[in-house]
Design goal:
With 217 residues, the chain is α/β, with parallel strands linked by helices. It contains ten helices and eight strands. The chain binds S-adenosylmethionine.
């Protein structure tokens, strides 16, 4: 870990925040941080930033926030996004589970969660699984009324578990659900493919995709 050159590199990167106090002190103040009132679009698990840089450079009128826990991946994502011409973006070195410490109620408009690890091998690993009931409720809290989250996975059981939670808590209304969304050509041509999606498609796996809208309470 000590030899990882990216630890130092990201300390000086203007598009990466890694100190928890600095990240959490922005809660409720993201408009101030970005200096505008644009919608906040959040991606959790940005990996090497292929999707993040493409999506953010196509939506220059939005404020993009990415979350990832690995130094090199954060740096690569920042670099790609700058090269793609994205202006309003910041990457946070933090766990997706901490969204309630980072965002105030109704502060986020759209969240992308693509191919999170299912962590289903061992019971003791289950705590790492992101899309569990408490997280989905937290996501509801930080999301603006009538806004949304998008979820993709190749893992059928994970997909079904999430659909089950959504049904049970009745906070999100499904807008689109597909167990093989490539068959929905309109949706397929509109969405951008992440690194993991490319790998899974190469292996001919079906991609499950859902979009959920926050129910007005
Ligand atoms: C399966 S990959 C993500 C795939 C990427 N979204 C894609 O579709 O190509 C998982 C990534 O999430 C990061 N990660 C793992 N646990 C995380 C967590 N709790 N919060 C944020 N990022 C996490 C890992 O470092 C890794 O880069």
């Amino acid at each position: 870990m000590k030899n990882n050159p990216y630890i130092e590199v990201i300390q000086n990167d203007p598009h990466i925040l890694q100190i928890p106090e600095k990240i959490y002190s922005q809660k409720g103040k993201w408009e101030e941080f970005f200096g505008n009132k644009n919608e906040v679009y959040l991606e959790i698990w940005t990996w090497l930033g292929h999707f993040f840089s493409l999506e953010s450079s196509e939506h220059l009128d939005k404020n993009f926030i990415g979350m990832e826990i690995k130094f090199k991946r954060l740096f690569k994502t920042a670099e790609k996004s700058r090269n793609a011409g994205t202006k309003n973006f910041i990457l946070l070195k933090d766990f997706g589970q901490n969204i309630d410490k980072i965002f105030e109620k109704n502060e986020v408009s759209r969240t992308y969660i693509f191919f999170p690890d299912p962590w289903d091998n061992k019971d003791r690993q289950k705590k790492h699984k992101l899309l569990q009931k408490d997280f989905i409720v937290k996501l509801f809290e930080i999301t603006k009324n009538q806004w949304e989250f998008f979820f993709k996975t190749d893992h059928k059981k994970y997909f079904e578990d999430v659909l089950e939670i959504i049904k049970e808590i009745w906070l999100w209304s499904p807008q689109f659900i597909s167990y093989d969304y490539e068959k929905d050509s309109e949706k397929f041509t509109k969405t951008k493919i992440t690194e993991f999606e490319s790998m899974f498609r190469w292996d001919k796996l079906k991609i499950h995709y859902a979009e959920f809208k926050k129910i007005d309470k």
